[in-house]
Write a structure and sequence with these properties.
Sodium/glucose cotransporter; mainly alpha; globular
Length: 488
């Protein structure tokens, strides 16, 4: 590896860990550690939400999909952009108001338990189990992406690359908690967007223009220029259905909860959606035009998910290349850190504090949170040892699990007065189990992305069970009070 690449890459990693150390001394209680004391501005809220959302698939999985399948891969981008916009528009502000109003709920299980006036711990436990199950898979996808990056960049063996990336990511999350995660995500979001703007422009210029790139692709694989590319209706619906997942992703939802005031949400939405559109279009362009570059220059590329890595190494000055490669790490880190923190907060707040030791001190809870970060990371690390794992496949499984288990419940809890605790549990269990079972079935309509049928069945289960069970009177009163506040 050239020295400038190594230096610039290392400087970036030192900066991230430095932010974690800084916020280590700013973290006094569990609310600071898991939600930043609800003190983030709209810019940090927006970019940290976007960066934690996109993960390594933005610079690895999505370009790889466009590289191998062509324009048809853009259907997923359409679904995601629509889903993200609806999430910002209909969920963000009500969720911020509701969670603050409900005894300052700082986790998703906390919110559900308070929203439905749940007696006992059944609702809290079911929510926690779903979060831990799918976040373990989600975190492992990021660790696989980090391993691929270190493997290709530093020439490390896969296992060594996996351990190196894991240590860096876990260290600043362990130290600084939510503020460290959000501020590193803010920086990482800017770096990711810049990389995805610059890279495709340089690729197109090197090839000789857009017309030349299209000509190369047409001669080699004309199907890559088709918006349908022989895809069935089921396949296209599956790609669009990814947008449904936004309503149930805890690492995105907690960003809405942490903004310092609900009136800043509109500005955050504008910043977040602008960032997302630019970044997603750049990602699609990297994969699409990267295919033409590889053909034109006779580059050997066995793993399509490494196309951005290869372009960064071949086309740019070593100093710039180092920061472009760091952008991939940024994408990976920005999601893993959020997932680790949400999982840790669930174990700490919703199991240890709420069930096992209600009189635990703030200092004790913060250290329990840090300890659980390490435990979850080790489990995800074990899953990630399979070097043949696909970043996109792991992400799609976890995305569907959260989207189906929590998405319908989040929406209905904010807009439907009559949802009960029993209905909430039925919806979460139905959504999660449908994703797991549907994933094993193949052929015909069973090829549709499991998120779609699971989302629908979860919604139906919530409504039906709630109709035949009784909602708490206090929950009805609170619902009316919160919506009166939202109208003012």
């Amino acid at each position: 590896m050239e020295t400038p690449v190594l230096v610039s890459f290392s400087l970036y990693m030192i900066l991230m860990v430095g932010i974690g150390i800084y916020f280590y001394f700013k973290t006094d209680n569990l609310s600071d550690y898991v939600l930043g004391g609800r003190g983030l501005g709209p810019g940090v809220t927006a970019l940290s939400a976007g960066a934690s959302d996109m993960s390594g698939w933005l610079l690895l999985g999505l370009p790889g999909m466009m590289y191998s399948q062509g324009v048809v891969g853009s259907w997923i981008a359409v679904g995601l952009i629509i889903g993200a916009y609806l999430n910002w528009h209909y969920v963000a502000k009500p969720l911020r108001v509701y969670t603050h109003y409900l005894n300052d709920s700082i986790t998703i299980p906390d919110y559900f338990s308070n929203r439905f006036e749940a007696k006992g711990n059944s609702l809290r436990l079911v929510t926690a189990i779903v979060i831990l199950l799918f976040y373990t898979l989600y975190t492992s996808s990021g660790l696989v992406g980090g391993a691929k990056l270190f493997e290709a960049t530093f020439g490390l063996e896969y296992t060594d690359a996996l351990l190196t990336g894991s240590v860096i990511i876990v260290s600043y999350t362990f130290l600084g908690g939510y503020n460290a995660v959000s501020w590193t995500d803010f920086i990482q979001g800017i770096l990711m967007m810049l990389a995805l703007v610059v890279a495709p422009i340089v690729v197109v210029i090197d090839i000789g223009g857009i017309s030349e790139a299209l000509s190369i692709i047409e001669k080699a694989k004309v199907s890559n220029l088709s918006i349908f590319n022989g895809s069935s209706f089921v396949a296209i619906v599956s790609l669009l259905a990814w947008g449904l997942g936004y309503f149930g992703q805890p690492h995105i939802l907690v960003r809405f909860m942490s903004i310092r005031h609900e009136n800043e949400m509109q500005k955050a939405k504008q910043i977040g959606m602008t960032w997302m559109v630019i970044s997603v279009l750049g990602s699609l362009s990297v994969g699409f035009f990267g295919f033409a570059y590889v053909l034109a220059n006779g580059v050997s590329l066995e793993d399509s998910e490494k196309v951005f890595i290869v372009l960064s190494q071949l086309l740019f000055n070593p100093w710039i290349s180092g920061f472009l490669l760091a952008a991939i790490l940024a994408a990976i880190m920005s999601t893993i850190d959020s997932q680790l923190l949400v999982s840790s907060s669930v174990l700490t707040r919703d199991i240890y504090h709420a069930i096992l030791k209600k009189d635990a001190s703030d200092k004790e809870l913060v250290w329990i949170g840090r300890s659980t970060v390490l435990i979850i990371a080790l489990i995800a690390l074990y899953i990630s040892t399979d070097r043949n794992s696909s970043v996109l496949e792991l992400v799609s499984y976890a995305w569907a699990g959260f989207g189906a288990a929590f998405g319908p419940l989040v929406i209905l809890s904010l807009y439907h007065r009559g949802i009960t605790k029993e209905g909430a549990i039925a919806g979460m269990v139905t959504g999660a189990l449908t994703v797991i079972v549907y994933k094993q079935l193949k052929g015909g309509w069973f090829d549709v992305y499991e998120l779609l049928p699971a989302f629908i069945l979860s919604w139906i289960a919530i409504v039906i069970v709630s109709r035949y069970t009784t909602e708490s009177e206090n929950a009805k009163v609170t619902f009316d009070e919160v919506h009166a506040k939202l109208k003012n």
